[in-house]
Amino acid sequence: MALGNARNSLRLSLLASIGLVPLACGGNAESRAGNEAEENARTCFTGACGRPFLIEAQARVAAVTPNTAWLSSTLAQPQVAHLTAAERAALAQHWQRLGQMEHASIAAFARFSLQLLALGAPSELVEACTQALADETGHAKVCFKLASSYAGQALGPGPLDIGGSLGCVSLGDIVDLVLAEGCFGETSAALDALEAADAATDPVLREVYAKIASDEQRHAELAFRFLRWALTKDAPVVRRRIAASVVEPPSHHQAAREVTVPCLNALLGRPLGFATIARA
Ligand SMILES: [Fe+2]
Ligand SMILES: [Fe+2]
What confidence tens digit (pLDDT) does each residue in 124-169 have? Predict the structure, then answer.
């Protein structure tokens, strides 16, 4: 799927998650080129692919250690025989980094589940959060399996420092976190994985990226559904936080901004830039 189409598709899906259906929108096809190692490596424009585990605005991850406990048992082996040592090392590094971030996403959802309970959120949101946590566990295991295959040794996460992670308890602060981690972070992750699935030459990697893209898209939708519910709790506070993120998005990912900002405008009842109708 061309990136322009991917953005439109994701924007449509996020709008549907908050009860709005766009009537028309446009987009430009984009292409990407590179050597094989680059094509099989997911682009990470932000340096924080996936849902980041933010503590005081810093993404926290565990160190990578020799570890056999985080290897997917179902993933097929990627193609490695034709790669040079340098390409294998680059791909090992790349998948290690993604594994660290996917592993940190588990913590982000574990914290989000506590926050949902603390706010008295409905079971639908708690269940979706629990499913997302399981998705991220699967992503981490796949990433560490790939990193290990390229590195020629079993690798996995060490202990994750969660100190200071539970200080965010007010509705407004939780909304800020969901905007950064979910609305922008997960949208970036979905778009990057879609682009990587398009470019990957190894069918094993293409399948991995496609699965991650589809899961991250659902996670972004969950963030928007949470905001819609949060607006029913305290509209002035939540509207103010959403409006601030539209003015100053907590992400430098251009494509994510192009997808997320119009959807946040829709939540605020503002024009998106293209016509919309309310879903019954
Ligand atoms: Fe993920
Ligand atoms: Fe995610």
Answer: 999 999 999 999 999 999 999 999 999 999 999 999 999 999 987 8
CA distance 267 to 254: 20
Ligand found nearest the CA of 131: 2
Q: How would you class 173 by CB atoms within 10 Å of its CB: exposed for 0-12, middle for 13-18, buried for 19 or more?
A: middle
Domains parsed from the chain with CATH numbers = 3-25+79-278 (1.20.1260)
* Tokens 């549907």, residue located: 16
CA 21 to ligand 2 centroid distance, Å: 23
Residue pLDDT, tens place only, 50-104 = 788 999 889 999 999 999 999 999 999 999 999 999 999 999 999 999 999 999 9
Centre of ligand 2 to C-alpha 82, Å, is 32
How far is ligand 2, taken at its centre, from the CA of residue 42, in Å? Answer: 15
The tokens for 245 are: 């993120």
